[in-house]
Amino acid sequence: MTMSQSAGTTEVLHYTAFSTSPSGGNGAGVVLDAAALDDADMVAIAAELGYSESAFVTPGPDPEDARSFTLRFFSPKAEVGFCGHATVATAVALGERLGTGDFGFHTSAGHVPVTVREQDGVLKATLTSVAPRVEDAAPADVTEALAALGWQAEELDAALPPRIAFAGVRHLVLAAGTRERLARLDYDFDRLLRLMERLDLTTVQLVWREGPAVFHVRDPFPVGGVVEDAATGAAAAAFGAYARALALVPDDARLTLHQGHDMGRPSLLEVDLRPGDPRVRVTGAAIAV
Q: What InterPro entries does the database record attribute to this sequence (predicted)?
């Protein structure tokens, strides 16, 4: 697809990430040559595409490194500090053109190494997050989030307390006590948006724990102008840090996150924790659509 903007005609690739089917995953636009675009061009392209985020690629800071790139991410409304699914989509797009192996992505959140490999005929990318952190969520902010969501405090899972988790951008983690509670999502868009802007949140990650290392997640994303994200790699990385900080899983765990099912876009995100390494690795497939 090409699209006319003030900077000229821009080639936009279309991928879906965290799925091997065009009917699943989270769509992203990928512009592999964004050097001629300014900020207004990029947000205009992202808005026209309508994906939750799109990635814009320019050469990395080392001109001698052909596998080093600078990535910027835009939602239909504004620039986003980091986006996992667009990172995975970009890595796979580059892997198809430059071959599998390691890439270095420079983002406003920091340096993000990514490895692309082929598995069963499909390319999968593993991103390694920046150093994460987890902090307490103020009770008044949790109360306001629940009110915006239309949830009751007693519907939460007390074993997974609310926290704000960061692995590139900030997410409020709230755990539902039942799968049924997670499945019913009808929130006050403007009220949640105001809270998220005040707390500098990218998404609210809503979680239900199916098993020791299996979770179902949903991510309202009003700050991006999107009701819900179908697959959120940045939130998955932040959740891995959350799970480790609260000792919900071992230090060497692999978590499986199912997302997008309730909105008809099933997505699969794999989250790996390694002993002695605070960073979180998130793996997913991506295909051109």
A: Phenazine_PhzF-like (IPR003719)
Q: What angle, rounded to 10 degrees, do the helices at 84-98 and 233-245 form?
A: 120
Report the distance separating Cα 37 and Cα 43, nearest Å. 10
Q: What is the pLDDT of residues 73-116, one digit of tens each?
A: 999 999 999 999 999 999 999 999 999 999 999 999 999 999 99
Dihedral angle sign, alpha carbons of residues 188, 194, 196, 202 = positive
Place of tokens 């109360």: 143
Rounded to whole angstroms, the Cα distance separating 244 from 255 reads 11
Q: Up-side HSE of residue 24: CA atoms within 13 Å toward CB?
A: 16
Which string of b and e fits 140-178 if b means at least 16 CB within 10 Å? Answer: ebbebbbebbebeeebbeeebebbbbbbbbbbbbbbbbe
Shortest CA distance to 26 belongs to which of 234, 195, 200, 281?
234
Residue type, position 85, single letter: H
Copy the structure tokens of residue 11. Answer: 């080639």
DSSP at 155: G
The amino acid occupying position 251 is: D
Q: What is the pTM of this model?
A: 0.95
pLDDT tens-digit profile of 190-234?
A: 999 999 999 999 999 999 999 999 999 999 999 988 999 999 999
